[in-house]
Amino acid sequence: MKLVMVNGPTAQLGKVIGALCSDGNFHPEKADSFISPTMGYAPLNEENPYQTTISVIKDLARQFDVSLETAKKVKGTVIDEKTQEYVEQLERRLADFASQAASLNDQIETCRAGIAQYSHFLGLGVKLEDIFACKFIVARFGHLSKDSYLKLTRGYGEHPYILFVPCSTDSDGYWGVYFAPKEHEDEVDRIFASLHFDRMHVPSAVGTTEEIIARLEENITIIEAQQNELHEKIAEIWKTEGDRICALYVKLVQSSDLFELRKYAVFHEKNCFYVGWIPAKSEKRLRARLEKYPAFSVEIEDPEKGDHVRPPTRLKNLIFFRPYSFFVEMYGLPSYNDIDITGFVAITFTLLFGIMFGDVGQGLALILVGLAMWKLKGMALGKILLPCGFASMIFGFVFGSVFGFEEALDPLYEKLGMRGKPISVMDSINTVLVFAIGIGIALVVVAMCLNIVSSLKKGKIGTALFSENGLTGIAVYLGGVSLVYTFMSHKTLIPSNISVMMLAVGLLILFNKEIIAGSIDEHHLVKPESISDYIMQNLFETIEYVLSYFSNTVSFLRVGAFVIVHASMMMVVFTLAGDPKSVKGIIVIILGNILVIALEGLLSGIQGLRLEFYEMFSRFYEGEGRAFEAAKLHAFSEKKLAKKAYHKSKSN
Amino acid sequence: MAKGANAVLALSRALYGKRLTEADYDALVNCKTLTEFTGVLKSKPEYEALLSAPGVICTASALEELVSKRQFEHFASICRYELAIGNRFYQYFIIKTEIEQILRCTVSLLSGNSEIYLLQMNPFLDKHVHIDLFALGRANSLQEVLAVLGRTPYERIYRSCLNAERVSYLTFELAFQSYFETAIKKLIKDCFSGSERKALLELISASLDIKLISSTFRALKSYKDILPLAQVPLQSMVTLTNFSEREVAQFGKFESADAFLESVSRGCYKDWFSRESELPLETQLSRSLCDRCKKQIRFSVYPSVVMFCYLLLSQFQTENLVRIIEGIKFQVPAQTLRDGLNL
């Protein structure tokens, strides 16, 4: 990374920011962290002048359902004081059409509501004006529930002044009209009110309900024709002005993006100061771009000479390792001067997963699932499943398992001249568990070695040599492992007296790590404030180191355990299936495999990740880096816009 | 037979699980309008379908009718299973409903407005009882009611009431109450035996005793001078009770309501209420009955007992809802409403 600092006239700042960010490799920083406050520079609180116009154009596009990113010609488009006036004028013209469209919509809704109302009373067979014109009879339109209708017919069936004419039914009751003589209007209204008659006020109209509905439908047709005319007028406007608006939009968004980036700058009178980071390889091209602005002074420095702000981190890995940066980012990016552990994670995680999931067929299935996730859904996890599936296939070959069939690979072993499968899981449980511990010991030592490398990179020699995860820690750990190995198996890895020496001396050094490593790294003698506190604290810390070595190592037993679990689960599946050649057997085996793939896949992934984060990362990795985030400008390149416009005109 | 009995048990317990909780009642009593009440009740699974139907009217009478209808739908669904297993205990609910309808019709006629009954009657019931409720609704006089009751066992009782010295609602109520208790006692003795019979009799007697205790207390407290209890032939009327005959005979001899309560608090209902409590006597007794019903639902192995307890609780729930509806209509404070609920 290189730190870029530019200083020059504020008037050209926008163009300079554009030059800095044009290749997408510039990470802006708040400039006030890189300049002394006494210089008089301060950030400005500016309102983005382009946002209002952009919002207006977006609203118009949304309202009229047009796409904005299809400008055929952006070059030559200029944003000036007339731009806003032009946009507002267009907005006013279109607003007028919009209100006409809304009014027509309202009219259609009114007609539809009318149709819905009158539809309930189809079949009445009488002209409404005749009903409303009656002098001695009143009519009430409405709805009566089924229960109430039952009460009416069976309770008031013989009432001389009640006549209810049902016109239509719905799930709840009857729509209809009741008639009553005017002089008994109150009594009948009271009865129907008690029956919860839901009265509907039908607007007076001429003709039968069928005729009224037909007229309303005609009205709807006319209004819809008017709506279409209106839409054509709007489309016409958009056809003539659309290109210009789109070009303006593109320019406005670009200008807005650049304006937003101004907030990182500090200003003093007519000058400004701007800071950011670029990858080292971009330096030459950047200098070339900035030559167009001689008024700006440009300084590009190495990060060590930068201020207290840490450089951001951008991971750069081999293509095989890149998917695993997902896990590294989950824990935390490495600091700029820390080691990139993506490769380490890629290898160890794949290995651990492969061991725990070992099955040729299920590994293949995992590869297919990973492919589907990656290609169809674009999920990052899909890319990780591919190598994991492949590793599972390899270990599946070692364990001799294909979709749980333990004898399927026997012919292959015979052809290869082997006596049988390299490891039969259920017959060599102890071997599997010991193997898992062995992997654990190896990985713990590797993690400590990485800590040494990382510490040396940071210039912390004391930590590299004398910490619990440094050289001393490795000595203590291996001494302890050797002694335990000797005790368990009566065989010697390292001669016992040497192991004891390594352990004793190592523990003594660890007990005094604070003084020894601290004095070397901080370049002065570290003295404890209180002897008793020092002894107590370091005693417990030393005990804690020993326990952590033990627990981290034993934790790897889970790798072996999951190998056994996997085999056991498949045993259960086959036990349930019975005869594998029967239909029931085949179905159970297929379903069992699906279940085991899902369950074991999840478990192996989680356990693998746990081992990475807790047993290994805790030994050497801090993850306190911050990501390199290049400033994002809307990528409206002329080529892209022209391509989109071409495709749009083809589809039209 | 066993499957049908298990079905009754299972259905009763399942429906019990859907009852409104205390938190639901708290939400309902705090509603300010019937529309709000409808909205809150609609969110409960038991009433969702009923209140989501189009055209639901948010008036007190419409809501009360809907809520009562829901209760009877539960009755009908469980009683169907009872019928399927050849158990006649479902007739308890039929007889109870029929007597209620007859008395309601009578009270509306005696009040001079024969329409009230027809308008308040729930047509749903007509399908399940042996009387033509619509014909009852059309009756304009007590004689017409007698004609409607025709060949039912109620005709004789109704006729005797009509021929009494003083025709009042009380006459009808006492006569039908007595008939009800006798009929139910016989029904239970015919259908059940042993512990199941005992449990049912105790529960039904308790539900009737609650009314007896609260009516007696009210009569002694407020109407001692108008209608001395000694003049009421309680011993002949009350046949289904957990009180002993001697205790019932003593009822007419109490001088005051306090003395009566003192006596009841030493008897079989001593744990059912507390004289220090601020809640009304009837509410305390009903809540105690509710608790006993809940216990029976959880632990009893007799289908009819579990069914009866659930239906009793369902009835209490309906009464609670009606109380809340009326409370909202007349803007009764929420705490007052809550104190009157049978929870």
Estimate the global geometry of chain B from the Cα principal axes.
globular
Please give the oligomerization state of what you see: heterodimer
Total number of helices of chain A: 22
Low-confidence stretches of chain B: none
Instruction: Tell me the strand percentage band of chain A.
Output: 5-15%
What would the average pLDDT of chain A be, to the nearest integer? 87
**What fold name stands as the CATH topology of the domain at 126-207 in chain A?**
Alpha-Beta Plaits
CATH architecture name of the domain at 126-207 in chain A: 2-Layer Sandwich
Rg of chain A, rounded, reads 40 Å
CATH domain class of the domain at 126-207 in chain A = Alpha Beta
Task: Specify the biggest β-sheet of chain B.
Answer: none
In terms of structural class, how would the helical and strand content of chain B be classed?
Answer: mainly alpha
DSSP E strands of chain A, number: 9
What is the H/E string of chain B? HHHHHHHHHHHHHHHHHH
The largest pleated sheet of chain A is described as: 5 strands, antiparallel
User: Helix tally of chain B?
Assistant: 18
Q: Mean pLDDT score of chain B, rounded?
A: 85
Distance between the termini of chain A: 48 Å
Broad shape of chain A: extended
How helical, in percent, are the residues of chain A? 55-70%
Poorly predicted tracts of residues of chain A: none
